[in-house]
Every structure is written in structure tokens, then in C-alpha cells.
Recover the amino acids of this structure.
């Protein structure tokens, strides 16, 4: 198996864009290719992570349209979909293709266009990531699912409710430094606790905002990377797992086995422990999700994630900085783009050129979760 | 690179089903696994080809839902999408994963649920396979695109218009023998020529019908296959290519370069010529598409495919039998299932147990085309 490196990256900001979905993805791919300096003809495959382009934009076949628009010819192209983990999947697959020698250069892009859609249509589209034959029938939304998750978490563990929401305050503080983030104005814990109730006990600022956005990276074999760029990022490990398809399938609603399994696999493959990770971008679709994820990834014992966040352990200058980009909570969550957005942010951290830089970051981790913990990808990246 | 074999297969009929899309896919996967005799725990990955579940059924994340429903745990699952080539892509990717040693056993399923949807919604969903920023704006539908294709073909080559439609008559005759086909009543050339005009010069019976359906296969390394089944089918070659994203991007609208490139690659990889192929299932979404495809795949010189079909060369007892299943034209075209449906039919042919058997079929070819020739997969399968 060959080592794999990231040798190019490009992104749009995450927020409200006039561009349509094809143009967003095309821009990210063009920027990633330009940053690598590679010719179009060097690219041997393109994978595109996307969730809702069909439902929200009436556009499928996006991988082929983007390839044609950007000038990539006669190569395998596909869209990968796994709800919120759609581009994490594309990244894992592309890394495998290079590692196993199928291809030498692969471009991966994630994209979503979510703003400007009527609320009912938007809610209906997001509901497509729940099982319409089971929980979907009950009207359970994702805020509702994470409301249940949060209630159960508070029931199981001795946790200060406000400590959970301090995650949202921390991530907004981080986003102030990140020009790619959708919401950058600082908020206080009172702002969160006094914001509109969404799904008890979650408030508005406990929930990530939608966004338009696209992010792309260029992957190649590590032994080819130095001829392409002076600052490649090594892909030390990736994992892609599946889990339960709804709340009713969980014995313990406060733990996502898909995350725990993926984490075990990457720690083993990269031969690291959680203590070796310097910076993390994880799937904080809700403030409580960041708390649970930080425990499932084994940065904290079960039930201790919220207090650790409140104590500053996950701040940019903390013991284990989590979501220095602002995370989904402040950067925004363009569903199909998010997994690669996390990869992009960690690359910037490991190259030492992030706007909200973690000091001396050598090893980073990304965590992308789809549905009710139904699909998960985790990656470990390292500085060369 | 390891040789790869198909060791299990399962399908629903193609037609009108009461089952929802998750249940259709789950049944096909369960049948494929049961036919292989493999335990659920042996499966290392699941890929699901689908085009329109989000738009037509409001359901995404299908790969995870099907895996959970069928009892597959903690494995990588993903949906692949490339319009009408969605499950051809899934098959190509899965074959690569086994060939390169990433996995030993992979299940691939293709599925679509299309009936019972209001016509406007249905037409809008299919339009998602065209570029909404270019030709989609003109209102060009896929029958319209193939109407242009057919008109240009008739302009370029000296062809009897009725010879093109004789493909539809031949495929309906084949479907009479196939219990999986949606439409099995014989039709005459007069029936076709007198049927409702759809997109000049195409008539109703020149166009494939929609259908609900799902098909799955189980892949493993060839050296493991004999321990699983007594009648494995060898995957001799697969290719996955991209082409132009709309009619305006073609210099020659009567030739799909994506098909020509994919065909060249599989003939080379399998070390065969078109003359070595005994049976073909190709993407006859329209009668004229079968004619063009049969030329792009190099079974006939350009401009001679229609006359050859009319002369019986592509009949089940002809020189190169094409679509003995009835093809998309009669079996139906459940978009995301079609690529694997073709694989299923060829497996039955090579095992010698097809209801419309081609005598002594040793080597078969499948051809799956998405969008305006924007994505193509071609496979060559062989009897062990």
C-alpha cells in the first residue's frame, strides 16, 4: 500500500452564494488544481461528495458536469453520497485508489447549495437522511434526534447544561478568525441559553446553520508529492464505517459506535493515540454532538467532554484544540462539502498557515458523521 | 491485481412494485447473499447505485439503511451516482476494491423506484441528469436529446428509418421469454411506427419505459470463488469513463466517445475483440441508442447497426445477440438498477440458465451509459 499525500486544496467561503452548485464545485476544483500546479491532463479520476443537489437544485450527474466544466476528460467520475458524510466518503475512496495503485492523481470535491430554498422544502430534503420507513414516519427531525441525544446525555451523566452550550460560544470565538466561516460575530453563553428553543433542550445557537459551499483537494502518492508541492500533507490513516439507522436502533443513544469503530481503526493504522493528535475538526452539527464526538473519539472519558470544553481544554490554546475553524456550528454545514472542509482546515493547520493557528500542529484528525450515526469517516493527517 | 468473480446474484422483477425503495434494495441484497451462501459477517463493504431516490422518494443515505436492514455491520457503505450509469459505477468500484486487495467480499446493489409519481415530478427528476445551467435551460428532455441524435444519425447515414425501430420489435420479442421484464407482449414494426410521437422521429415504442426494481451481486476474489459457488462468473475487465455533458459539446452527435473509450479499455484489458463477445446487454434507452451503441462498441461499422439489427444479426440466434433480456426498451429502465440488471442477465447467460439463452455463451459484455453520454461503464464477463 502506497502512502498518500494532499498536494492541492481549494475552497469557497461557506455562507450565502449567488453561484449555483455546479459553479461552486467547479471553482473549488479549479482552485485546488491551480494550487497544486498540476495540469488537467494529470488527473486520473474525480469523486464528488454531495447530499441534496437532486432535491434542492434538481441537479444530479454533478461529477460529470464538473469534470467537463473544468476540462477533465475521459476519466472515471462519480458522486458519492452518505448524507452529511458524503465527502468524507469521497476522500476515503480516493485515498484508497491511490494507496492501492489504481490511480496516481485524484481530485475530490464536496459541495452543497442550501440557501434560498423555502423552509419546508429544505426541511424535507434534510429529512432524507433519516429512514422514511421508520423514524421518518414519526416526524423526527435531526434537531429532534439530537434533542433526544442531549436529553439522554444529561440523564446519564452529571453534566452542567450550560457547559454543553459553551461549545457553541467557543466555536463562534474561533470563527471570528476564519474568513471562510458563515457566522463570525462572538456570542455569549447567555445568547445561547436565551436563543429560540429548537428541540428541547437545544436552542438555536446549539444548532449548526446551513450554508452554500464547496471544497476540493488533490491527492497523489507521497513519493510523487515533492515534485508537485513543497508543503504536502500526509494522509496517515482513513476509516469509513457504518452504524445504526435511527434512534430506535441504539442501546445507548449517547454513543455512536460508527465513530468509535472508525476512531479505533485510524489510531491503529496511523499508530497514534488520541494524545498524539494536536488539532481536530469534528462533526459538531449540534453543541452536544461535539461533546459526544469528543468522547467517542476518546479525547475525554464518557460524560466529561462538556466540562472539559467549558474549562478551555478544547480551545485553540487548549490541551486538544477542537474546531478552530469554527466548526459546523459557526463555519456552517454545507452538507456534502463539510467532510472536505474539515480536511482543508486541518491542512492549513499542519502547514502552519491557518488564520486561527494551533501552535506547532503536527498531527490532525477529522471526523465526519452522516445520518443518525449511520455513516462515519475519520482521517488522520500529518505534516511531512 | 487479483482476478475477481461474481459469486452471488439476486434481483426483483422490473415493473410496478408496492415495495418502497429500501425494501426493493434490501430484497435484492438478501437474495444475492442467500444465493452465494455467504454469511452476513463475510461482507466487507456495500455500494449502492441509485439516481433519483432523493427526488422521487425523499430518501437518501440508502446504502446505510439497506446495510442496517439486511444485517451488515460496521462496514464502509456508500451510494454512487452517475445518472443512468449509477450502478455500473458501483460495480466498477467494487471490482477495483477486490482486485487491489482492499476487500475480499463486496456486495453491490442498484435500485430505483419510479412508478406512482406524478408525471411532472417524474420528468423534473429525469431532467436532473442534464446540465441545468446549459441545455436544461432550453427544456431539452432525454427523449428530445435522443430525437436530435436520431435525426442526425438519419442525416449522416443512409439508413431505413424503420430498421431503427425494428430494434424495439426484437427486444420485445426477447422480453416475452424473460419473467423479469416489464413489457412482454410482442409488438410489430407497424405498432412502433403508429405509436404516439414522443420526440421526432422517435415514437412511444422507441422509448424505454420506467420501472421499479433492484438487482444485487456479490463479488469476491476469483481464488476464493470455488469455495463459495460451483458456478462463478469471472469479471474479465471493467472500465469507467466520462464524456460530454450535453448535445452542444459534441462535434459528432452520433458517437459517444465515453462508450468508445470504455470499449477500447475493456477489449484491451480482457484481451478480446468485439468478435469474441457472445452476448451483449447494452444501454438501449431508445431504439436508436441501441443502434449507435452497437457501433460505438465496434460490433458494426458506423451507419450499419440498424440494417444489421433488421437483418437479425442481433437476435438471440444471430451473429452477436444484443439485449436477449429485452433490454431497457422492454425489461424497463429503473435508472439506478439498470447497470447491475445487465450484469445479472449476462451472468445467467454465461451460466447457461437464462430463459432466452444464447447458445454456448462464453463471454458477455454489458454497457451502461449516463446522461448525454456523460458517464459510461463497460464490463466483460466470462464463464469460468
Amino acid at each position: 500500500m502506497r502512502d498518500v499525500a494532499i498536494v492541492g486544496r481549494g475552497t469557497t467561503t461557506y455562507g450565502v452564494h449567488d453561484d449555483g452548485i455546479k459553479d461552486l464545485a467547479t471553482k473549488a476544483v479549479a482552485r485546488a488544481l491551480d494550487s497544486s500546479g498540476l495540469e488537467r491532463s494529470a488527473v486520473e479520476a474525480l469523486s464528488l461528495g454531495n447530499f441534496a443537489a437532486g432535491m434542492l437544485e434538481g441537479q444530479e450527474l454533478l461529477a460529470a458536469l464538473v469534470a467537463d466544466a473544468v476540462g477533465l476528460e475521459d476519466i472515471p467520475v462519480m458522486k458519492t453520497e452518505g448524507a452529511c458524510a458524503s465527502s468524507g466518503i469521497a476522500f476515503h475512496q480516493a485515498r484508497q485508489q491511490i494507496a492501492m495503485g489504481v490511480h496516481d492523481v485524484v481530485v475530490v470535491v464536496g459541495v452543497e447549495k442550501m440557501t434560498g430554498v423555502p423552509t419546508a422544502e429544505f426541511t424535507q430534503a434534510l429529512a432524507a437522511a433519516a429512514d422514511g420507513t421508520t423514524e421518518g414516519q414519526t416526524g423526527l427531525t435531526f434537531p429532534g434526534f439530537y434533542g433526544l441525544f442531549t436529553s439522554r446525555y444529561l440523564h446519564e451523566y452529571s453534566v452542567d447544561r450550560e457547559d454543553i452550550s459553551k461549545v457553541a460560544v467557543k466555536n463562534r470565538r474561533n470563527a471570528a478568525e476564519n474568513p471562510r466561516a458563515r457566522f463570525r460575530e462572538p456570542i455569549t453563553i447567555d445568547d445561547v441559553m436565551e436563543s429560540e428553543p429548537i428541540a428541547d433542550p437545544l436552542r438555536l445557537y446549539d444548532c449548526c446553520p446551513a450554508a452554500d459551499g464547496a471544497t476540493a483537494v488533490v491527492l497523489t502518492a507521497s513519493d510523487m508529492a515533492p515534485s508537485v508541492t513543497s508543503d504536502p500533507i500526509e494522509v496517515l490513516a482513513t476509516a469509513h464505517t457504518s452504524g445504526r439507522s435511527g434512534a430506535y436502533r441504539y442501546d445507548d443513544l449517547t454513543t455512536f459506535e460508527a465513530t468509535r469503530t472508525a476512531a479505533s481503526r485510524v489510531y491503529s493504522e496511523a499508530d497514534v493515540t488520541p494524545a498524539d493528535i494536536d488539532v481536530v475538526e469534528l462533526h459538531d452539527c449540534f453543541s452536544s454532538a461535539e461533546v459526544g464526538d469528543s468522547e467517542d473519539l476518546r479525547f475525554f472519558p464518557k460524560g466529561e467532554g462538556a466540562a472539559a470544553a467549558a474549562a478551555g481544554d478544547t480551545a485553540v490554546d487548549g490541551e486538544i484544540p477542537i474546531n478552530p475553524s469554527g466548526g459546523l456550528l459557526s463555519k456552517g454545514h454545507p452538507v456534502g462539502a463539510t467532510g472536505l472542509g474539515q480536511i482543508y482546515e486541518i491542512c492549513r493547520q499542519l502547514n502552519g498557515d491557518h488564520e486561527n493557528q494551533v501552535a506547532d500542529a503536527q498531527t490532525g484528525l477529522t471526523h465526519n458523521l452522516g445520518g443518525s450515526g449511520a455513516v462515519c469517516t475519520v482521517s488522520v493527517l500529518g505534516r511531512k
In short: The domain at 4-117+211-234 of chain A is CATH 3.40.47.10 (Peroxisomal Thiolase; Chain A, domain 1). The mean pLDDT of chain A is 97. Chain A has 13 helices and eleven strands.
